[in-house]
Each structure stands twice: as structure tokens, then as C-alpha cells.
Known about the structure:
The chain is an alpha/beta fold and about 240 residues long. It has 2 domains: about 5-125, Rossmann fold (3-Layer(aba) Sandwich); about 130-239, Arc Repressor Mutant, subunit A (Orthogonal Bundle), CATH 1.10.10. It contains 9 helices and 12 strands. The protein has helices spanning about 10-25, 35-40, 60-70, 85-95, 110-125, 160-170, 175-185, 195-205, 230-239; strands spanning about 5, 25-30, 50, 75-80, 100-105, 130-135, 140, 145-150, 150-155, 175, 215, 220-225. Strands 2-1-3-4-5 form a 5-stranded parallel sheet, with helices on both faces. The model is unreliable at about 190 and about 230-239 (pLDDT under 50).
Amino acid sequence: MSLIYSVEDDAGIRELINYALTGAGFEVASFDAAESLFAAMEDRLPDMAILDIMLPNMDGMDALKTIRQKYKQADIKVIMLTAKASEINKISGLDGGADDYITKPFSVLELTARVRAHLRNRISTERKTDGRIEIGGISLNESARSVISAGKPVALTFKEFELLRALMKSPGAVVGRETLLKEIWGYEYFGQSRTVDIHIKNLRAKLGANGGHIAGVRGVGYIFKLQTDVKDVVASRTK
């Protein structure tokens, strides 16, 4: 589970951010000042920090600068949150090392969507080393075209391997059936959605308990979930 630190001196907004991101499945710790943030970072580094610019004592821009200098070896994503909407403020934040910039008032859905996007990119980058992608107990080696699930090698067909690779390269994102058909089978199979469904069924069965990471999104396509639960595992064995 990704850890997010949020720094906001407005109690109402701080509570809203905490509620929204916790509900979206993230681990969240909230602070009302940058000093508290850095005290927490001494014990545990987050995957992301959301910083309000207008903070007491140390403002968000100075906090951003400190993060980038002191923890430059850590890939901590930073989103700046502020009431200032001018172009120059956005440019300053991004030039200072921020990954994104959200202006108040903001939509909770927009906030969670942007958080997911940046953390998805972070995870994808972390997991792909020397042609390997390792997520959720599954290790995929692109160079050797091999897959290990729960410590055991899995024999996949060419298409099953390509499907798994396509989904694992975008963890947490829905990949449409049409996209999978186009990229893996080619245009001549466009629109034949059952082709994808049948291969996904076989793939999930071969992955065993880890097959629950692959979930269907009705009418759209499939997603590689970062976490599974008992229902996912049961579904992967029965579909």
C-alpha cells in the first residue's frame, strides 16, 4: 500500500484529503506544518507528499526544496496544493521539482486520479529493472520471456505472456479490450472481445492465487490490481 504524507494547515481541507485518499485505498498521514512532515520522514519515507504552499513557518515551496535536496535519492512524488492559480506560481512549483500542481478549490475525484497516475508511474518505473517487472508476487522477465508466480515458474503461451506484460506495465490502470486486441492480435481481430476474455481466463488460472490481480471491468477491459482479496482469488479460479 502506497504511503502518502499530506501537509495542510486548514483542518477541513486536511480532513477531506485524508478521507478521500484513505477511501481510495492509500495509507495517509496528515500534518498541519512542514516541521511535522520532516519529523515523520525521519522514521519512514512516503511514496508521495502533498504540500500546501501557504504553510506556517516553512512554506510549501521551501518544504519541496528540502525534500528534493535531502531525499534526492528517494523517488518521492510531490503534488503542490494551493489557492494561487497564476501561471507564474505553477511554473515556480514545477521548476522547483514538483510533479504536479492542483489549485483550490479542487475536485476530490481529480485529486485521487492524479495521485493514482503519479504513483502508478512510480511503481511501474521501480518494478522494471533489467527487463523485469515484479508486482504482486508475479515476476515477469521480458528478455527471457519467463514468468514466476508465487515462487514457481509459469508456462504461458505467446499471447498470454503479451497480455500479462501489457497489464503489468500499467498497474492500476484499465486497459481496454480493443487496445489489447490491436496491440497483441492486430487489426484483423478487432472487435472480437471473446478472444481476449478466453485468454485472460486461461492466464488467471495459470497464475493461481495471484490470478486475482487481474480483474475485469465490465464493458471496458481489464486491470492489473496492486492488491487482491479473497473474492478476487475465488473469481480467478472460477471464471
